[in-house]
Amino acid sequence: EDPARLAEFEARIDRGEKIEPADWMPQLYRKQLIRMIEQHAHSEIIGALPEGTWITRAPGFKRKLALMAKVQDEVGHAQLLYSAAETLGKSREQMIQDLISGKSKYSNIFNYPAFTWADSCFISWLVDAGAIVNQLANAKGSYGPYCRALDRICAEESFHLKFGHHCVIYLATGTEKQRQMFQEAINRWWTPMMHFFGPADKISTHTEVLMKWKVKMSSNDDTRNQFLDMYVPKIWELGFTIPDPKLKKNAETGRWDYTEPDWEEFKRVINGDGPCNKERLEVRRIAEERGRWVREALRSPKAAYVTPLA
Ligand code: FAQ
Which residues, including other chains, have CB under 8 Å from residue 46's CB and lie 6 or more apart? Predict the structure, then answer.
């Protein structure tokens, strides 16, 4: 790669300028962005599934409406992110194929089952919280289309977070059984939640190059620590416990001490062998199959009469 162009590219990033699709960029920057944005898009679309199964069973009409809107938003986020990734030269069809075939990754956490309504509340509150911590930071990154998509996504996620918090407070101030349901959800979801921010910095593969080029604005451990800082006190305040005896803020370092989550389990889950991976991809495959006629109809020459999309 031309060293002069690379130097100019890096100088632009250092000045805080946004890189746009038609601008020159190193091949590795393009490749890393496609990987990360595509994984993010897949996470949103697969992330709609565990909560989606709770739409018909959400307690009460208002919660049902709110959950339905949230799940729709998540699928919309996937569309925004696929569009951002497409600007880098990979087609949406190829991305979806790579998801269904298991070639591409998506967030570990959506491979766990949402057994109870409390699990769905855990996702709406704490998984969304984790996603926001990550996305607010990355929205200040260097690639224009990704940052603009993240700005819009964050605005909607803040609503999801409020909905989730509201549902959790209701359980926390309810009967003993309701409190127990949420406690059990925390016990089930804590390890996947710790995994959610990615492997510890010392074993993370991509952090260095992504941070150098301001794609990733915070390391995995820093993002995890920020999440713990913001949400552990809120969980404790509601009288719940967290299943990690080592978890406490270290007064000397100002950071959280915790038991290192099992990274072998993480690797298994992200490589296809978690509790729900097969089911999640099968649902996606069937949706793709069922939607085929719509895509074909849009591509047909006759579609020009009925839709400006054709
Ligand atoms: N899950 O070198 P690093 C949401 C993989 S959106 C699965 O540290 P990096 C909204 C990684 O790809 C949630 N795989 O990776 C919602 C790499 O594998 P590869 C998604 C993971 O990229 C809420 C390998 O491990 N958010 O939740 C995970 O520097 C509620 C080595 O890792 C985003 O995608 C993981 N958790 O840092 C929806 C945000 N972590 O590709 C519905 C954008 C790591 O070499 C309901 N992405 N891996 O085979 C990022 O910020 C980064 O990509 C990280 C990972 C921080 C996720």
Answer: 99, 106, 107, 110, 280, 284
So what's the architecture of 3-272 in CATH?
Up-down Bundle (1.20)
Q: Output the CA angle 306-307-310, nearest 5 degrees.
A: 120
Per-domain residue ranges of the chain: 3-272
pLDDT in tens, 247-281: 999 999 999 999 999 999 999 999 999 999 999 99
Q: Residue 134 Cα, ligand 1 centroid: separation in angstroms? A: 10
Assess: ipTM above 0.90.
Answer: yes
Q: Is the CB of 119 under 6 A from ligand 1?
A: no
Q: Are 199 and 262 in contact (CB under 8 A)?
A: no
Phi, psi values for residue 256, rounded to 5°: -85, 135
Tokens describing residue 310: 């054709």
Per the listing, tokens 């059990």 go with 184
Determine which residue's CA is closest to atom 42 belonging to ligand 1: 47
Question: How many of the other CB atoms lie within 10 Å of CB of 75?
Answer: 13
What is the residue whose two structure tokens read 């990704």? 146
Instruction: Give the ligand 1 atom nearest the CA of 223.
Output: 56
For the chain, which residues score pLDDT lower than 70?
A: 304-310
